Amino acid sequence: MGALETKAIVAINQTANQFQSSIVIQVGGRYIDVKSILGLSITLFNNQAYELYIQGPDEEEARAVMKSVFEKHGFTLKVM
C-alpha cells in the first residue's frame, strides 16, 4: 500500500467517524464498516466500485460528505 492509499484510507476513516450514522461500503459480497481503519485498509483499492450505505440520524449530511471524500481520492462510488 502506497502513501496515497494510506492517505485516502485515513481521510475516509476520519471523515466517517465524525458522524453518528452507520457507514458501510459493499464490495463484492463483503460489507465493510468505513469507521474501521483495518477493514478499509484491506478492502480499499482504486480499481473497484463500491456501494455506500448510510443509516442514522445524520445520514443526509453523511451521504454528501462521504461521497465527496471518496471521489476526492478517485474511488468509484454508488450511494445507495
TrEMBL record:
Pfam families: PTS-HPr. InterPro entries: HPr-like, HPr-like_sf. It comes from the Bacteria. Residues 6-71 form the HPr domain. This is HPr family phosphocarrier protein. The lineage of its organism: Bacteria, Bacillati, Bacillota, Bacilli, Bacillales.
